[in-house]
From TrEMBL:
The keyword Transmembrane does not apply. One of its GO terms (molecular function) is L-malate dehydrogenase (NAD+) activity. This is Malate dehydrogenase. It comes from Triparma columacea. GO terms for biological process: malate metabolic process; tricarboxylic acid cycle. Residues 166-327 form the Lactate/malate dehydrogenase C-terminal domain. Substrate binds at residues 100, 106, 138, 172. NCBIfam families: MDH_euk_gproteo. The active site is at residue 196. Keywords: NAD, Oxidoreductase, Tricarboxylic acid cycle. It catalyses: (S)-malate + NAD(+) = oxaloacetate + NADH + H(+).
Length: 330
């Protein structure tokens, strides 16, 4: 069991809180028993988002800040600015940045989102160097290495506290496999490894015990790898997954906070600095504790089919990591 006092002392900052993910994610945080201060930060709209959320009758105090501390904030007259949003934060969730349109890859977002993430993580280095960073902004395979390099340059990098959020890949894998098996998705738990873009997403369906033909295995694997594209196409230019991502982002945040509060056996996937493959950053199940990632866990045996994808994925993933590191270095 965890201490009640620890339950009620967490501050979570959402950067990009007025966006498609940021708003529903902030709502879920506002409903959380694990959060007692929720700070909503964005370049637009956060005083309104925070005022709106503050009418929900839950215990957490909600604030809304814009980059310019003098440009408005919630509560009215409160300090505002990135510093106020971040100071004292235990977890900073970052969905700030542009989403894809049909025909784009996540890497096509690099030029815009790399700078956004770099600037925000510089703020974290200064104002909340001990917070766990949960990075949602794409391309995650590169933005997480950027965050790590920024923190290293500021002398505050802790690899246990810099995570790319890959929870949505697991949500999709569980949903799609459950449909195939005729099961409730909550009874299915697929390990998904690698990164968060196309073929770097590798669901280990062989470990689930599900029976399927070769064609079914291929179709399920590819659907999980390209699940993001399914939503991008259906939204037809209006963005990418927001509601399912808000759910997945909250699940990740809640688990980080449960572990922080002393709850044991919190294991969930995260894209983190890792020594379990040749890639410097890799998504795999991780055990979380009070200080972030306690242990990067292995992922068991791969089938020959999965090994084929793994071998294809690794050069792509390493290149995307290097791209992030090069950006941060220059
Ligand atoms: P959106 O455009 O609806 O919202 C993004 C928000 O970020 C906007 O409100 C914008 O004002 C804000 N923003 C931009 N620059 C900022 C800055 N410098 N500081 C603070 N806020 C800033 O986009 P969205 O649909 O919410 O998606 C956000 C990001 O999340 C995209 O990069 C998308 O690709 C990514 N994403 C990742 C996953 C994942 O599984 N990791 C899933 C879905 C989407
Ligand atoms: C997703 O997986 O839904 C996100 O990474 C958004 C996208 O661009 O597909």
């Amino acid at each position: 069991m965890f201490a009640r006092s620890a339950l009620s002392s967490a501050k979570v900052a959402v950067l990009g809180a007025a966006g498609g993910i940021g708003q529903p994610l902030s709502l879920l945080c506002k409903l959380s028993p694990y959060i007692d201060t929720l700070s909503c930060y964005d370049v637009v709209g956060t005083p309104g988002v925070a005022a709106d959320l503050s009418h929900c009758p839950t215990k957490s105090h909600t604030t809304g800040s814009l980059p310019d501390a003098g440009a408005g904030s919630w509560p009215e007259g409160s300090e505002g600015g990135l510093k106020a949003a971040l100071e004292g934060a235990d977890v900073v969730v970052i969905p700030a940045g542009v989403p894809r349109k049909p025909g784009m890859t996540r890497d096509d977002l690099f030029n815009t989102n790399a700078s956004i993430v770099k600037t925000l993580v510089e703020g974290c280095a200064e104002h909340c160097p001990d917070a766990v960073l949960a990075i949602i902004s794409n391309p995650v395979n590169s933005t997480v290495p950027i965050a790590a390099e920024v923190l290293k340059a500021k002398g505050v990098y802790n690899p246990k506290k810099v995570c790319g959020v890959t929870t949505l890949d697991v949500c999709r894998a569980n949903t799609f496999l459950a449909a195939h098996m005729g099961k409730d998705p909550s009874d299915v738990d697929v390990t998904v490894i690698g990164g968060h873009a196309g073929i770097t997403i590798l669901p280990l369906l062989s470990q689930t015990g599900a029976t399927m033909t070769d064609e079914e295995r291929e179709a399920l694997t590819v659907r999980i790898q390209f699940g993001g594209d399914e939503v991008v196409q259906a939204k037809a230019g209006a963005g990418s997954a927001t509601l399912s991502m808000a759910y997945a982002g909250y699940l990740f945040t809640e688990n980080v906070l449960k572990a922080k509060a002393g709850e044991k056996d919190i294991v969930m996937p995260a894209y983190v600095e890792s020594g379990i493959t040749e890639a410097e950053f890799f998504a795999s199940p991780c055990r979380f504790g009070p200080d972030g990632v306690e242990e990067v866990l292995g992922y068991g045996e791969l089938s020959d089919y999965e090994q084929g994808w793994f071998d294809k994925m690794l050069p792509d993933l390493k290149a995307q990591i290097q791209k992030g590191k090069d950006f941060a270095a220059n």
